[in-house]
Amino acid sequence: GLDGYHRQTADLRAAGTHLEGNLLLGTGVTVDAVLQSYDRFTEARVLREHGNSGYANTMRTAFDQIQVVVGRTGDGSLAQQLDQLFADIDTLASMPWDVGARGQVLNDAEQLAWAFNDQVEALDQSERYANQSIGYGVTAASENLEHIAALNEQIMIKEAATGQIAGDLRDERGRLVDEISTQMGV
Description:
By secondary structure, this protein is an alpha+beta fold. The protein has 4 helices and 4 strands. The chain has helices at residues 40-70, 78-94, 99-162, 167-185; strands at residues 7-14, 17-20, 23-26, 29-37. The strands form 2 sheets. It has a two-stranded antiparallel ribbon with strand order 1-4. It has a two-stranded antiparallel ribbon with strand order 2-3. β2 (17-20) and β3 form a beta hairpin. α2 (78-94) packs antiparallel against α3 and α3 runs antiparallel to α4.
């Protein structure tokens, strides 16, 4: 269906009759009101699931970024560098007098420290990105809440003036509530 759309039905009433000659003729029907209907429990469930979906998508994005940083395998990975350092330490243990073996252990330890620092920086960057995304989400949710407040006022004014349901405004408000439920999950 359409985002934010709630089922709308026309409430019809007889338009009346008039006498023409000896015949009483009906003049058809007129729309008395347009009614909007939805299931409150289903709506609440949908909003809750939108929140869960927003949370899951945010976590997936964060984990994808972390996976790029810490999930590396093969050459240059932390596991490979640790294996190399331990192998060089074993070599040094069997030949403690070898200056080259000592230098290799120091070099490998330094490379491993740089790799750890690179990963810490990448994780810090992921955290900054996540915090920035949260900030954007809060701003968007706040703007949507302000828009909903304005729509509520418009709905009250229109419905008081016409005595009919302002379905288009209520649909827009429902769409914004859906968006906010996703943003709150984030």
